[in-house]
Amino acid sequence: MIDAIPRLGDIIDDYCPRCRLLLNHAVASLVDGKVVKVVCQTCHSEHPYKNAEVPEKKKKPARAALFSQVLAKAPAEAEEEPPAEEAPAPPPPPPPEKKKKASPPARYISRHKTRPPRGGR
User: Fold this and answer.
1) Strand order of the sheet with strand 21-31?
2) Are 38 and 26 in contact (CB under 8 A)?
3) Integer CA distances (angstroms), 112 to 107, 115, 118, 119, in order
4) Tens digit of each residue's pLDDT (9 = 90 or more) over 71-92
5) What is the pTM of this model?
6) What whole-number distance in Å separates Cα of residue 29 and Cα of residue 10?
């Protein structure tokens, strides 16, 4: 089977980096018969042709690996002898509790003109 030569405006499938999906695209420019730029038919963004290849997802490193990296960068603590037995300092007093302010009463706002009161009988 002969591959069709793409022309300007033809619809082809390609990966859209903005939508992050494989979607329909229109050919926007050609160089030597090869597609160079395409326009996404969903978000209308123009980008280079990516040969309909979806990029691999970035893998996040495991937490254990991150933790070991942090520990490797931290300076090693020299083991010190425990100080002579001293009386432990009393714990600091708890912070005073903040009092809640009373909120103002709700205001009812109407979006139409108010009518004057009916005739005073």
Assistant:
1) 11-16, 21-31, 34-40, 46-48
2) yes
3) 15, 9, 17, 21
4) 888 776 655 555 566 777 888 8
5) 0.48
6) 11
